[in-house]
Amino acid sequence: MSSNNTCVKGLVRQYQSSWKMLRTAIENVPDEKWHSGSEGWFFSLNAYHIVETMEFYINESPDGWKWGDRAGFDWDTVEDKEKDVLPKITKELVITYLDEMEERVTKTINSMDSEKLDSKDGFHWFESVLEKLLYLLRHNMHHVGELSRTLRDWGCKRSKWV
Length: 162
What we know:
By secondary structure, the chain is mainly α. The chain is about 60% helix and about 0% strand. It is built from six helices and two strands; from the N terminus they run H-E-E-H-H-H-H-H. It has a two-stranded antiparallel sheet. Strand 1 (about 35-40) and strand 2 (about 40) form a beta hairpin. It is globular. The two termini are about 25 Å apart.
């Protein structure tokens, strides 16, 4: 891949900005609010979901994927999110996971050329790898927006636009 690929460089820069905003939201939430939320939505679970979804979509295929595996739970068997899931999702776990996904996603995107971006992979509901990567970026920012709004509602310092 040519390092001058404008599309690849732009994708990486936009992902890096989204990760900065996510990291800031995680750092800014007070520990006592980390697992707070309502109606089945929890700050910690949303932060974890953003990172886990990055790992899901950076793969070539959805085959064999197990949601919750990184945190030690299986969504197919969860009965009570607050009891079975939240205690397993620590800030440290999410930040470490984010560090790993930042590195992996950056490396994966940087290895792509125009042909790869135009190709299809095992995620058959997307027309191309580029569309999948754009979808993932939109997904991340939707949920980062939820985190930022929640921080605002709680009177906490929120993520700045970067």
